[in-house]
Protein: 4-hydroxyphenylpyruvate dioxygenase
Organism: Jeotgalibacillus haloalkalitolerans
Amino acid sequence: MAKDITELTQNAVEDIFPVESFHHLELYVGNAKQSAYYFCHAFGFEIKAYRGLETGSRERVSYVLEQGVIRLVITGSLTDQTDIAEFVKLHGEGTKDIGLEVSDIDKAYYGAVERGGTGIREPWTENDENGTVKKAIIGTYGDVIHTLVENVDYKGAFLPGYEPYDGPSTAKSIGLVGIDHVVGNVERMDEWTSYYEKVFGFNVLKHFDDENISTDYSALMSKVMTNGSGRIKFPINEPAEGKRKSQIQEYLDFHNGPGVQHLAVLTNDIISTVHALHENGVEFLQTPATYYEDLAARVGDIDEDVQRLQELNILVDRDDEGYLLQIFTKPVVDRPTLFIEIIQRKGARGFGEGNFKALFESIEREQERRGNI
Ligand code: TYF
Ligand code: FE
């Protein structure tokens, strides 16, 4: 009996898809030069690497932006024939690739495909004078992919094919340190949460149904998927019936199907990060003053000055392990699709459940201004 349990436990903890960390996030855009400028000057990234005509890349141009351990690749098309041009035409600008760093690419790729994952490209090797990497591609919801990267011994600026960027420095970090989670909007949540369970061995960390989180219009269901190490978190949302159009449905309509809804980035000092973002002209969702009236009663003692949080529109939520602070930008592209969340965790491992009502009501005010509900 005891032996069975031990065996079971060992099976349960065996990670069928060991992921080290996020490797990069790649956005497909209409004009990489200008988008890169926006992310650098508004969000404090620095351009580290580049590929384009000057480096022999005749079809795609990419700027690799860094801050903390975040690597954001901004890619545009140099012809009308690429998947980039097609993506941007259909979806508008948005996230194409959630790149994952793995230690054993063959095991990761072939295992995933065997378990029902969509194989897009089998493992291949790339190298240049700076070393070697192995890559492979697995598909996920919509036109989003997971490029798997195994770094064999690579020491270059980013990946083979990229050169160090030699343009003017844009280094003015606003304190973003890493990626907390990446959220997908889909038509059928369970289809994609099972995909992450089956193919990648992820587990459900949290489940929010429409009862928990419906306001007048923004009804949605959400499950947070997490990998074995807990380092990668992928919440997946589905629209639910509300009085009028769900914010998730608005996304699906404008994006023309499933895709990445928001990127949540970590800071260790949200007040100074958000202050800098305001100075840089980034627009945030507004929180009503009433939210801050009962904040102290709801979250108890916190280190930050509530007055300052209110000035900056920062939200707070507490769970049994601590609290978190978060804020959401308005969409950062033309269509009401992709937005950015800034989050600071002080112990809490949740997603701001206590803020859902206030947050979704401010999203609804924006939907109303856009004429979409
Ligand atoms: O990632 C989360 O779960 C939170 C809350 O449409 C959230 O950031 C959930 C759904 C949504 C916007 C924010
Ligand atoms: Fe989030």
